[in-house]
Amino acid sequence: MHEGPRASIYVHFPYCLEKCPYCDFVSYKTERTAIDHAAYADAVLAELDARAPAFQGRAVASVFFGGGTPSLWDPRQLGRVLRAIRAMTTSDLEVTVECNPTSLDAARAAALAEAGVNRLSIGVQSLRDEELAFLGRLHDARGALEAVRAALASPIPRVSADLIFGLPDQAPAEAARQAGALADLGLFHLSCYQLTIEPRTRFGELAKRGRLPLADDGAVAEAFLAVEEALGARGLRHYEISNYAREGEEARHNLGYWRGEEYLGLGCGAFGFTRVDGSAAGGTSRAPGVRNAGVRWRNQILPETYVQNAHDPTMEREELDAAALLRERIMLGLRVAEGLDLAAAGHELGVDPMTPERARTIAALVARGRLQVDGGRLRIPPRAWLFADDTAARLF
């Protein structure tokens, strides 16, 4: 993996001390003492060895350890995986580890820094104890603040925090207050997400039975705008629908996804994507006769099954033609403030992106203030980001 098309690496750690009721990621409630840290690292290293040849020639820009709760992983074992990745690339890597406040303190932050981590993403989610209890979090507001302060005081140079808004009975001003309080600690990056109810979660089941209190849509929209105003006043630019950063502090890893770059997914339940051929996903070639096809795969979702089959853990494999990749580019590219160069994306993928129907739709969306055209770039105005999913879907 050297100079060439940009790519990123995602490593999934599937263990948590508790399963949050809103979470639909591959994660499993596990006692700390039940985690075999070394065996899991061995499995990820075996998968890396098997998949790396398909990513030769890529310029790896970032590594992201997600979960689950990767801050539970023994930093020495996480470091083994990171050293193997670094040995395959000459790139200057952004290395992020997701953390929960219950498994992050000064000592853990220092150990992660020693392992080569240079960015932390902390799942604060709220600064009110009653909201944290509703969300099923194990930490309280004080613990969240202590974890952020410990990270900021550590040798790790970049720290981000996640915040959830749109909670039942939460005033928009309260969402803005919490976002501002986190920024005032010295954070230069914040991810602020609306609470979404996913079907295969405890919250999803409660909502299905009408037993989950939900926020009013109008209040959620007001909270979105209030958070934007609070963070903008503190110098954090709204560079993606859910993300804010000082100039230069944007998440390199996430930008890769939004720009349609390839990614090597490692670990239980991880997804990967390549546009060259199917070998990274256990296949042999791209779809016959399809130009610039891509392949997406997903790994086994049970940790035991993943570890036992680490040299070939693929559970699902999907071939994507260029038209499908263009639709994904539109959906993801319109999430960011920089927007999408539709003509360039079409040229790269080998398809004509400006069909008569799409051209008419673009003109109609511009007239409604839902879309802007700046040269060859399409952008959603910040005040229309609330309708981003619908806007992108109309362009499919």
Model description:
This protein starts with 5 loop residues before the first strand and ends with a helix. The strands form 4 sheets. Strands 9-10-8-7-6-5-4-1-11 form a 9-stranded mixed beta sheet, sandwiched between helices. Strands 12-13-14 form a 3-stranded antiparallel beta sheet. A 3-stranded antiparallel beta sheet has the order 15-17-16. The chain has 2 domains: 6-255, Aldolase class I (TIM Barrel, Alpha-Beta Barrel), CATH 3.20.20.70; 334-394, Arc Repressor Mutant, subunit A. The longest helix has 16 residues, at 217-232. Helix 2 (75-86) packs parallel to helix 3 (106-115) and helix 11 (322-333) runs antiparallel to helix 12. The protein has 14 helices and 17 strands. With 396 residues, the chain is of the alpha/beta class.
Which short descriptors sum up this protein?
three-stranded antiparallel β-sheet; TIM Barrel; 2 domains; 396 residues; Arc Repressor Mutant, subunit A; nine-stranded mixed β-sheet; globular; alpha/beta; 36% helix
Total E-strand runs = 17
- How many domains? The number is 2
- Helix segment tally: 14
Morphology call: globular
Strands side by side in the biggest sheet: 9-10-8-7-6-5-4-1-11
CATH superfamily descriptor of the largest domain: Aldolase class I
Output the structural class: alpha/beta
Instruction: Give the DSSP E fraction (strand runs of 2 or more residues).
Output: 15-25%
Helix content: 25-40%
Largest sheet: 9 strands, mixed
Q: Which consecutive residue ranges, at least 5 long each, have pLDDT under 50?
A: 278-291
In whole angstroms, the N-to-C terminal distance is 33 Å
The CATH class assignment of the largest domain is Alpha Beta
Radius of gyration: 21 Å
Q: What value does the average pLDDT take?
A: 93
CATH fold call of the largest domain: TIM Barrel
Reported CATH architecture of the largest domain = Alpha-Beta Barrel
